[in-house]
Please model this.
Amino acid sequence: MGIQLNHVAMGFFQERIITQGYPKSDDTFIIDKFGDAQFLVLINRIVALLLCGIYLFYDYRRLVVFG
Model:
């Protein structure tokens, strides 16, 4: 359930970033749109890997290792 909610939330935020405009930093009257969807997906994957790595690092003590 958590994974599905995470995918829905990420899809919602990505779609919102791609479709809605934002004011440019030098001129607040010009509205620009985010144009590179592949870069957004790449950053999404990198952040997901970092979060998973952090979680595994801190949760490693609870893992049971049979040997």
Observations:
- The two ends are 32 Å apart (CA to CA).
- Residues 2-62 form one domain.
